[in-house]
């Protein structure tokens, strides 16, 4: 065998041994993305995770679509009309659309999707309550459907742009087992999934028959890289083209910016961060203690020192992009003397333990939590940090009410409406509210949902934010900019504020 052939055989053996998605150079027309989390299921009714939507926005379509400019535009519906004083919405559907498996998209698919979401299957997932206002779906003809509502919902059109409302193929879902559907999603989006390796990655290929035209990329690969330093190293090595939020530690931003092949895209995001309180038991069941802990922490200093100014302090659990945001609302001040006074008044002994539960793969928030713990130590509390694997924290520890005194909550509020945050965080019985029950707050939350008067509804949402802040249900920390690490070979990529990337117009050199 000639020397050249020996080298070729050796190279082929090395390439065959490389793990999924890891290549020494990018294939032409292929975009590779680092995502920090495997959502575990690709069924739209099973999820609330931004990292699901970062992938699935390319696999599925909804009746409407919200782009990176946050505007709602037609999706599988070409137009819609609000009837019966807001209790019926009629959608004209796009004709000639195919699912990835060849099934036809039509009114039956829309009805099937929502019947499933609002039925027993949807009951198992976290999305059903977002669409509970839908009483039924009526088929007018093959390409016209009515959503009949129990009451008006001013946020419903936006909700139809994401998550549970993504349209699925009836025959495919009916004929296959649930676990198979979870791992092999079929939609009408610009890319179809060709491979899913749990905990490792996903491969998509262009769907040439997409109703919006064939994507400019041939393929997209997502690699699930939970360790931020590894993700950044892969970006620097050219094996990853985009690292999506919230992976990139603030401390590594200068390193990426110094690389002539790379750039940081920083955009205002809807994502807010807080440490929520266990209001059900322990010392944090006392409102005075919760307020003391908030006042013990200099959140502005943390933003400047740890986050490099890439965030804004918040007074309520929402960003300025959220409908219901009150720019006049002020956070509790940093005042350690007052904090000590409140702790003494509440009878909290010096050295009382405080456990803070966080996502173990969020390096930046880990640094923030260390700073928070140090501030709490200054007022006599013994704060310890307990990291969890993200899916364990989100699917078990928080919903089952098994947290310590504080737990990390980061929330995108994907509808850009405070209802989507406040209702899920504060209403009795909701997944993200394992400890608290407040009838007055429940009544406020319920009262705004059917309101058509925009100004009146905004006022109630602001009242809810003030009420939650007065009860100190969480320590509001900051609204963090969405940071994307991007290889400059990527063209036409618009960094969305909410990580919901639509990649059909993206190209690579």
How would the blueprint of this fold be written?
Layout: H1 3-17, E1 30-35, H2 50-56, E2 64-66, E3 72-74, E4 77-83, E5 88-93, H3 107-118, H4 120-123, E6 134-141, E7 144-149, H5 156-159, H6 170-175, H7 178-183, E8 191-197, E9 201-206, E10 219-224, H8 228-237, E11 242-243, H9 253-257, E12 262-267, E13 272-277, H10 287-295, H11 299-305, E14 311-313, H12 336-345, E15 352-359, H13 363-378, E16 381-388, H14 390-397, E17 406-411, H15 418-426, H16 439-448, H17 454-470, E18 474-480, E19 482-487, E20 490-491, E21 507-508
Parallel strand pairs: 1-10, 1-11, 15-16, 15-17
Antiparallel strand pairs: 2-3, 4-5, 5-7, 6-7, 8-9, 9-10, 11-19, 12-19, 13-17, 13-18, 14-18, 20-21
Protein name: ABC transporter substrate-binding protein
Subcellular location: Periplasm
Organism: Nitratireductor rhodophyticola
Task: Characterize the structure shown.
With 509 residues, the chain is an alpha+beta fold. The protein contains 17 helices and 21 strands. Strand 15, helix 13 and strand 16 form a beta-alpha-beta unit. Helix 15 crosses helix 17. 48% of the residues are buried.
